[in-house]
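Format notes (please read before filing issues)

Several people have asked whether sequences and structure tokens are stored in separate files. They are not. Every record keeps both together, in the order shown below: the sequence lines, then the token lines. Line labels are part of the format and must not be stripped during preprocessing.
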Amino acid sequence: MHGDIDINIEEISKTEGHTGLEVKVRDGKVEYVKLKVSENKRFFTQGVIGKKYFEIPSFISRICGTCSIAHLFACIEAVEKAFGIEVSEQTKIMRKLSMFGLMIRDHGMHLYFLSLPDVMKKDSIFEIGEENPNIIKEAFEVKAAGNLLCKVIAGRAIHPTFATVGGFLRIPKNDDIKNVLEKLKNVRNNVLNLIEIFGNSSLFFEKESLYVALCTPHFNFLEGEIRSSDGIIIREENYWNFVNRVVIPYSQSTAFKFTGKPYRVGALARLNLNKDELDEDTKKDAKKYIDKFPSNNIFDNNLAQAIEILHCIDSSIKILESFEFKEEKPISFKIRENEGIGVLEAPRGTLYHMYYFNSEGKVKFGNFVIPTAQNQIHMELDIKDLIEQNLDKNKHELQHMIEALIRAYDPCFSCASHFLKIKWI
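Then the structure lines:
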């Protein structure tokens, strides 16, 4: 390639949502990288104002279809913190199971359908399937198992109906539990195969980074303390003292820095900071690949997601085989004027919800910090370095490398997926 080049990718392929990329290279140096998120703003922070506490969880889950369970529980946690609600152990377990189901189906979708073609050097999973039809079968089996777990515990895989402030409206039936147990056990070998594929992938882009994650007991994605790879440990309610908003003029997405520095969130950050909390069976059967962490290879985010799927399967099997679900009475509580903060690990990283309620339980103010927005600055910096290190590649190779790197972050710009249009000037 020449030392001067302009790259304009109108829409990045095989990602969730609308985004484009603009790059300017002069004299072999990247002058700028603009990752331009073009999703229209939907003003959820304004939409919640004036709504009562019991209305917002279902409403706010509509931020994202694929991650609706994560937004639902982050919102519910914030409400419960505001009103001092202590939920039962059964409710905590059902929320863990719901999150495990979310991770299985969401990671499964990303790994099989979006990132596996990059590893296999194919255009799509269907092209892979022409040579290996079983891989498509395994993909749908894994995703179906995650969907079923969400449905049995929370009512639906997307925008679940059973979860509410203080608990769940229904408990799972024994026959449904037996069914989901069978499905989870049947797909475990599929996931071990997936771990092996991504563990042996040749895709590599290493860069020292700052990692941030909510480090949770037993890797449950729901409760714990926020940690960074440079040694900072903070309580959930203090997040705004460390997470700083950054306005990106060319993007519809707000970006963030952590203590003024670009940082990464997601599965790679979780494995780097919290791998000792993985399920014992997962640590035993995936030891060879877990030992790769901590890692600075952004493509190991894919491997980390595959390991998380195995952990969620193993953890769910143990819970479902040992726990007896019982009907519970609704929890009573008093509404008060107060602030509530909910923090959890969504599939793509740490998710923050904050609400301020008035004395009637209506929202006066809301704020959300989304994982992909936290990764945006680091994505741009990685793309810059990747291009500068590979200017000897031809146009097609460089284009594919850029897209594969972006896909490795598993960004969720919304819930849509688009074909690539690229204009080289």
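For reference, the curators noted about this record: The chain has one domain: 44-374. The domain at 44-374 is CATH 1.10.645.10 (Cytochrome-c3 Hydrogenase; chain B).
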